[in-house]
Amino acid sequence: MAHPPQSKAPIVMNDDVGVPVFPYDITDRPYRVLGEVKAGVRKATMFSKSPSQAKIYRELWERGQKLGADAVIKASYGDAHVTAVSWGKANATGTAIKFLAPGEIAPAIAKP
After folding, report:
1. For the chain, first and last CA: distance in Å?
2. Which residues of 64-94 are buried (b: 16+ CB within 10 A; e: fewer)?
3. What average pLDDT score do residues 5-25 get?
4. E strand or H helix at 55
5. What is the DSSP letter of 44?
6. How far is the C-alpha of 51 from the C-alpha of 24, rounded, in Å?
7. What is the per-residue pLDDT across 37-93, written as a single tens digit (0 to 9) for each?
8. I need a labelling partner for 105 at 20 to 30 A (CA). Which of 28, 29, 76, 82 fits?
9. What is the pLDDT of residue 86?
10. Distance between CA atoms of residues 102 and 105, nearest Å
11. Is residue 22 within 8 Å of residue 73, measured between CB atoms?
């Protein structure tokens, strides 16, 4: 009996929010940048609490996954603000990255 292929789990995880999204750079492993990701998370009503960091990071991660990312780094967001069409919206940005496999890491080339 054949088993269905297992989905690839994220390589790193931010345990505070449950997704591989971090407010800082990852410096202990080489990666390539896939692109910037942006998300806007709205409050349900004027009386709702501002979106949590976990909710904002999940939105950034969904967009990073669409780019094939292993993680999103340098995530930042502002306070929710009211606009003419929203009771409150927090805008967030981050950088989607893909970790390099050992064969993808080019050795440093010495300059003459």
Report:
1. 59
2. bbeeebbbbbebebeebeeeeeeebbbebbb
3. 77
4. helix 53-66
5. S
6. 20
7. 998 876 554 455 556 778 889 999 999 999 999 999 999 887 654 444 445 577 889
8. 76
9. 46
10. 6
11. yes
Lowest mean pLDDT among 29-33, 36-40, 75-79, 98-102: 75-79
- Rounded to whole angstroms, the Cα distance separating 63 from 69 reads 9
For residues 76 and 92, what is the distance between their CA atoms, to the nearest angstrom?
6
What DSSP element (H or E) covers 38?
Answer: strand 31-42
Confirm if 12 and 20 have CB atoms less than 8 A apart. Answer: yes
Separation in Å, CA 94 to CA 17, 54, 78, 103: 15, 14, 12, 27
Q: Report d(CA 108, CA 19) in Å as an integer.
A: 32
For residue 112 the two structure tokens come to 């003459």
Give the whole-angstrom CA distance, residue 95 versus residue 25.
9
Return the residue matching tokens 């896939």: 34
Query: Please, which pLDDT band fits residue 34 given cuts at 50, 70 and 90?
Result: very high
